[in-house]
Amino acid sequence: MDFNLTPEEEAFRGDVRSFLDEHLPPESDRGGMFPLRWAKVVREKRWVGFSWPRDVGGGGATVMQQAILKEELSQRAAPPLGTCIMGLAWVGPAIIQHGTEEQKRQFIPDILDSKYQWCTGYSEPAVGSDLAALQCRGVRDGDHYVVTGQKIWTSLAEWAKWMILLVRTEVGREPKHEGITCLLVPMDSPGLTVKPIRDLAGHSFFAEVFFDGVRVPVENRLGEEGKGWQITLGALANERSGIAEVAGLRRRLDRLRELARVRTLDGRPALEDARVRRRLAEFHTRISAMRFNGLRFLTRQVKGESVGSETSINKLHAARLEQQLAEFGIELQGSYGALTGGSDEAVAGGHWQKQALGWGTTVIGGGTPNVQKNIIAERILGLPHD
Amino acid sequence: MNFGFTQEQQILRSEVRKYLEERCPMEDARRIMESAEGYCPERWKEIAELGWLGLLVPESYGGAGLGWVDLVVLLEETGRALFPSPLLGTVLATLAIVENGSPEQQQRYLPRIAEGTDLFSVAWLERADVLDPEVQATRAVREGDDLVLDGEKLFVTDAVSASHFIVSCRESEGPEGIALAVVPADAAGVTVTNLPSIDASKRLGKVSLAGVRVPADATLQGASGRPAGAAALGRLFDHAAAAITAEMVGAAEGAHAMVVEYAKARRQFGSLIGRFQGVKHPLAEMYVDIESFKSLLYYAAWCLDEAPDEAAEHVSMAKAYASDAFTRIGIDAVELHGAIGYTWEYDAQLYLKRSKWAKAMFGSADHHYERVAELGVV
Questions:
Q1: For residue range B82-97, what is the model confidence (pLDDT) as tens digits?
Q2: What is the bridge-based pairing of β-strands A117-121 and A160-168?
C-alpha cells in the first residue's frame, strides 16, 4: 500500500490547483458572467468529457487524473464541468462506445459544448426497478421505428432536445432484456407529448412522456437492434464512482457540526452532548469509509481490473448519509425543526428541511437502495435471481 | 497511489489460509479451544517455523521484519479460522518491544518470541477499566537495582499460557512516569487466574502482582534510555484495537460466507431461501459493512507504520464501525440459519461469540466514536 502520488500525478494536481486558483473565485463571488466564463475555460482545458478519448474532443485522461480532478473540484465546491447533465454522464459515453461515426459527429461536440439537454426514457408506469420488463413498443416500418407507449419519471423532459430511449422491438423474447433496442429521439417529434409531474418538494423536474406512433429514423438507432440493454448497463456504470461525492458529504457534515455548535440542548451547546458527538462521529466515519472504499476501487481500475457492482457499496452509503444528515439537522432544531423556509423563525432559512425533502434524484434516481442490495446479492454474492 | 496488497502479501495470505484449512479446520479449532491450555503447542511450533511469530521481528533479531499491512493479512486469516492461539499477545508484545526496547532488550526478548520459545502477553487493563494510559493503579517502586511491582491486571489475553507479561505500571508522577516492565510469569509473587471468556478461542486472565521483584533493566527503555511513558502505552492500545479489528474482518467474512452458502442450498416454500429479499438484503448489508470497515482498517494499518499522527483517529473509526457491524453480523448469522444456527454443533455460534468478545475488548464503539469526535469532528 502506498498513498503517495507519482511525481507526474503530483504535477497534474499542482496544475489543477493553480488553474482553480486563477479561474475559480470563492462561492460568494460566482454570479454575473462567471458561469459563462467557467464554461469556456473548462471546455478549453478539455476537462469537459475529461475521460473521453481525445479524438472525439475529450481529455483522454487516465483514471488517476480523473480522480484527482474530481477530488480537487469537489473540495472547492466547483460548479459542474458542463451543464449537459445526462449527455455528459451517460449518453455521450454510450454514443462513443456504440454509436456510428455519423452519430458521434452529430452529437458529441454538442454534448461537450452543452448546447442542449438530453433526457433518458427508461422507466415506465409498470416498470420501475425491473427495467428489463419494459413494454413501450418499437415496430420496424421500412426506414423507421414506430414507437407507441409511455415513459415516466423522465427528468428534464420539458427542457431536453433529445431523448435516449429504450423500446421493446421483440415481444416474448427470453431472456426479456434481449428484445430491447436503444433509439435517439428528437423531443419535438410529432406524436410525442410531455406532461410534467410535481414532486413532493413542489418542483417539476420530471415528467411523463407519451408516444403515439412516433416515427424514429433507423439511423437514430444506437447499437444493434435487440442490444439496447447492454448500452444501459454500460451507461449506468458511469455514474457510480463515489469518490467525488465524499467532499460534498463532508461539507454537509461541517455544516451540521456548526449547527450543533450553535444549537443548545438543556442550556448547553448540542456539540457537548455525548449522543450528538457520537452521531457526528458515525457520519464522519461512514464518509471516510466511502473515501477509502473509493480508493480501493480506484486502485483496481488503475491496475486494469474491472470494477462493476462493487460501486453499489458507496451508492448505498451515499443514499443513507444524504437522508440521515438531513434528518439529524432537523432533529437538532427541536420544535424549530417543524418550520420550513419563509420566516425569520426558521433555522438556516429552512436549509435542512429542504435537504430532508430533496434526496429523490440521488436516492431513487440511479436505482433505489433495495435495488442496490439486489445487485450486490446477485452479482457479487451469487445468490439466485428473484 | 496503490490501496491494495502486493503480490508477496497475496502469497502470504494464501499460505496462511492453506495452513489453517489443512491444520486447523473448525473441528480442530473447537477441540483446541475446549482444551485446558486453550492452544496447541505442536501447531504453535509449526507457525513459528512458518515465520508467523517473527513476522514483525526485525531481521537482525531472527524475524521477517515485515510491517502492519502484512500483519493485517495474517490476522484476517487467523480471524477467519477462529484460530485459538496466543498470537495476539505475541503480536502486541513484539510491537511494544520493537518500539520501546533498547537494542539489548530487543536482543534478549525478540529471538525467543520469534522462535516460539517464550509466550508473551501484555497486562495493562485493571479493575477500574479506565482506558486512559495514564491511569494505572499498579505501582512500581525502585529498591536498589530492583523494581518492586504491586497491583492487579485484568482482561489479560492468553494469561494462563503466557511465560512473560509486559506489565504497565506507574513508577513516578506525570505521563513520563508510566513504565512497561517485563515480568516472567513464574516470578515470585505473580498469580495467574483464568477468567472464563465469552469466546473460548480468546482466553482472558487475571494477573496479580504482590511484591514482584524484577531487575530495573526489565522496564522497556528505548535507545534514548528513557522509560516508555504513557504515549507508548497509548500507541500500544491503538495496535491492540487495530489487531483485533483485523481479526474481526476475517471472522465477519467467515460468518458471512457461511450464511451465503446456506442461502444457496437451503430450500423453503419451494424455493432457495437466497431468493427471498428477507435473506438477500441482510446479506448485502453485511457485505457493505464488512467492505467498509475493512477499508477503514486497511488505511489505519497503513497509518500505524507510515503516518503515525493519523493513526489514532483511523484506528478508532475502524474499531468503532467494526464493533457495531460485527455485532449485527454475528446475530444475523445465527438468526438467518434458523434453529440449526442456534445449536452447539453448528459453527455460526462461534462467530457470534467472537463478535461479543471483540466488541468489548480494547474499547467499545462508544469509546472509539468519542475519540473520533475529539480527533476528527469537533
A1: 999 999 999 999 999 9
A2: parallel
